[in-house]
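Hi there, hope your week has been kind to you so far. Please have a think about how the structure follows from the sequence. I've dropped the whole record in just underneath, so have a look:

_____
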Amino acid sequence: MRDLCNSIAYCEEHILHFFFLAGADFVMGPDADPSVRNVIGIAKANPEIGKKVVHARHLGGRMLHIASGKSIHPVTAVTGGYSKPMTEGERQKLLPMAEEMLEFAKFAIKWAKEEIFPKYLDVVKTVGVINTGFMGTVDDEGGFNCYQGLIRLMKPDGSYIDFPVEKYTDYIEEKVLD
């Protein structure tokens, strides 16, 4: 249940980020008047996309409310489990919503790849590029897992090492750099 709610929130938040916040600068163009570089500007420029975006964001909130009882800041994930079991009726409500959200995600990434990314590829490759590593928790197959598994420490070149949480201090330390 925690993974499900996290996945729903992830979808909803990425819609917010791409279409409502940072993405609008690219969708409308960095030279566009700031008063139109927002979801309202997107909706006016392309009403069909605007409708899809607002509907998908609303759908994500509804899904999170069904799965957790609250769409903003759910508190159902608790130490040792989840405080709200899902009923069969809730599951049946969520299935078509999840299918609709998946179709929106397919549409959004296809649209972004065709209409947005090609226009800004040179900028993306050069502005704010930071050579850094990453760290996260992975399952036994190396897939992302928020709640359990091994710690994966990845270097900027893509090489990585996995280790158990208990060995954290054998691999990670804090130090001050000049």
Summary: Residues 169 and 175 are 13 Å apart (CA to CA). The two ends are 44 Å apart (CA to CA). Residues 2-126 form one domain. The chain has a mean pLDDT of 89.
